[in-house]
Amino acid sequence: MEVGERYSRRIVDDEIDELQAGVPAIAIEGAKGVGKTETALRRCQTAYRLETATQRDIIVADPARLLQGSAPILIDEWQRLPESWDIVRRAVDDGAGPGAYLLTGSASRDDISTHSGAGRIVTVRMRPLSLAERGFDPSVSLTELLSGVHPTVNGATTATLTTYADEILHSGFPGLRSSQGRPLRARLDGYIDRIVDRDFDELGRKVRNPAALRRWFTAYAAATSSRASYEVIRDAATAGIGDKPARGATDHYRDVLERLWVLDPVPAWLPSNNPIARLSTPPKHQLVDPALAARLLGVDREALLDGASTGPAIPRDGTLLGALFEALVTQSVRTYAQSAEARVHHFRTRGGEHEVDLIVERADHRVVAVEVKMTRSVDSDDLRQLRWLRQTIGPDLLDAVVVTTGPEAYRTTDGIAVVPAALLGP
For the whole model, what pTM was predicted? Predict the structure, then answer.
């Protein structure tokens, strides 16, 4: 997209606006295709596009050129010239003013000696489009829920289970939203192929067996919204294969995919100021976009709605569509939480007696708990874990929410918010 084309403002734009007014350098990071460059180009006066070989060669010959030009100066895909990070850091140390530099990056690296930039370069995460950014009209604000005032919850939507299945398949990558059918599938395949065939090499991490990487990637997709161990994922990826790869090889896959921001696991919530004991610590598995998981598993709308089970055998509670619906909601909730300066975790006791899909935590460690239910209406069992958590942590629970596929938002008689996914926003 060129600067002159139509641009749909993103939720993260508000965060960047605030930061640019007060900090000299911002790094916008996230997977390829989430919209980092388009967002940054609208904020800069000078742009250095390091993904372009010709411009990168010129900068390699004279790195100081990165500081030349009218501010704000954008360094796009900074990781392709790792020393650019330190060049900006030093410029900040030398007194660069607010909003002087923007960096965008589609990967982090572990084979460079860049200074962390802590206190000089502020990092902002960008994810694919949330539901609120895809044209839905939210009526319930996560920021208000986090305020602890128990806001009124209302609103109605025509979104159905089929709507959400379509959104899962259609992807939140802005550049893919205009595609449908076979062109969309081909573009998602191309995205996956690039990860396997090119991105590892560009990070200096050679893939000796691309087929094994693709099998592991597919098994991870099958583990979406689960806490399956990495041994279970490895075994699922190599079912029927006698010579299984060593753990070091699969750890290598996971490490690089996380550095590419393609894996987006949800960390466990480990509260320090309440009486809950014996907590489970493994992350909950998520890809950056559930469309990638669906494509890796080869499912279409009919297969999802029919409850088909495809791909490697990974134990899960419920259907694949339920897991991908949770992934879609998680992707959106993380975007809304970031806007509210909050973090997202999952919660589970070690024996599995109690668990909550998402815990949105403020800086003071008070939380909003979110259960994701692929249902039009909720019953007492759907509310059971939220009620237990409220009784257990008391005032540390600011609010409790069940996100559904239903038509209306409301509060239950005991105050729990029931909100269709399409009606939840920042």
Answer: 0.94
